[in-house]
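pasting for ref
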Amino acid sequence: MPTVICIDVSLSMERKAAEDTLLGHSLASLKTFFTNLQNVVPNEFIEIITFSHTATVLVEFTKNSTELINSLSEIECHDRTCIRDVMELCLKECQLWNVITPTHIIFITDKIPNALDEPLEGFPYGCSMSLVALTPTTDVNNKAQAFLTSCNLKGKLFPGPVLGKDSVDRIFENIMLDNYSKFEACLWFGHQSTSVVISPSPDMSHLAGITLKPTPKTFPTTLRIHGFLPATDLHNPPYVSRHVLLHSGPRSPIKVTSKTPDLRVVLNEGLRAKDCVALVDLGMSWFGVISSHLPKSERNLKKSNLVFSIIAPNAFSWLGNPNFLGLKRLVSADKQTNMPYREDFSNSYDNKSGSGMVWIKSTTLKQNILKVVRYAKRLPDKGSAMFLKELNKVRRSILFYGFTDMMGVLCQLLEKETNPENSEILNKCIAQLKEEHDPGKMIK
């Protein structure tokens, strides 16, 4: 899960505590925390926010621990503290992730903040806070709970007092034990197995709260691959969480030697070469899908990862019940062409072959709109056919989703690209966008 670290840089953090200031002890312990976190959860995205009278993002979400450590040397103290501003900025940063990704907030200050005057709402489900108060006060638990309640967050208080760097180090060690523990499992395929680390750790109680469906009480520590499916048959089902399968060392029940093939490597190469995914039964109709993923940033290195996607019950509507999936060769030849059973239309999650667009994130919506604008800039020399095709796709999706305001924004963007050469085709399209509201009719 992503982590947002909020650091109080007001003048009160400059108070002496043992051989250094409160801020100095905090920054020194954070450097150790970043190093340890890189070893435990190497794919954790971390962002640093500093706050006093205003709140600013010091480092945006990154997995680079070196960048995080170097940025701490740039921190300077300012005047008073404004809690409302930092919580509103923190809310905005948490909302950059989708609604099913919980964000953990580490709030470092010298004293427990008072409850907000107006409750703050909008944090994604599952977000939590570790409140680090370096100077203890009376009635700390009630005051901390009142602050967390006003922010609509669950959390835990980690009070001081600060007797030196060691005491602050112990606070961050406790935070790591509570929120960033490794989850190790044994992955089986046939008679071969390997020990893997699932990062980030899966939380079935969180998944149950998202889907409101019965879930296993605990996530299984033994993952058995039951079979494989072509990626084209699976399409793109809605997942509730995604994880990376990392190497955990030789803890498999089978004796591992230098000649024993690594199951992770075999799966990674095989799934990528055959364009398939592996299916894992998690119990109570929950399933996991293992696929090979090559990030854009690592395509030059040709370094792919095994991605483990957790899928809720009844998510394979176009395949039927996954519990009844079997070998294709067991079915007579005259019935093989009808498997898997498909609808006559493309499902709503297939954004590649279908004509519809999936607008789950605001960035995807912006990309589709800007794509139309790019084609409009090429008019009239080239790209008129592609311009009309993309324009009709965006227009149809706007009408289906009911984004009426977005239609006006699209018309304004096209008006800005109008020039004497393309004015005829663009003005004609703009007029049809404003007047025609039938998604079945095409703009020509």
